[in-house]
Amino acid sequence: MPAEGQPTETSAGGSQPRSRQATVSEFDPDTGAGAVLYDNGRREEFPGTAFQAGGLRLLRLGQRVRLDYDGDDVAKVTLITMA
Q: Each residue of 7-28: pLDDT tens digit?
């Protein structure tokens, strides 16, 4: 089992991007950029392109999200309830 805040594979074959769950701590609706806090208290920023890739319209502070990674970069931000 990975350590808290560490990426996990989203498929058995590892062909899908890694993902992590976190809580929104900052969000700029003009740029789509923001930051999240992991359960271990670590903060990470995400770019507006990752927000746009998730197809979302808005994020609220305190909202739980999934961050999908391509390598070390956040590639997409989605809601936990969305696939």
A: 554 444 554 559 999 999 999 9
Total domain count for the chain?
1
Distance CA 30, CA 59 (A): 12
3 domain residue, yes or no:
no
Residue 51, domain CATH: 2.40.50.140
Residue-level pLDDT at 67: 97
Establish if 65 belongs to a structural domain.
yes
What is the model's pTM? Answer: 0.77
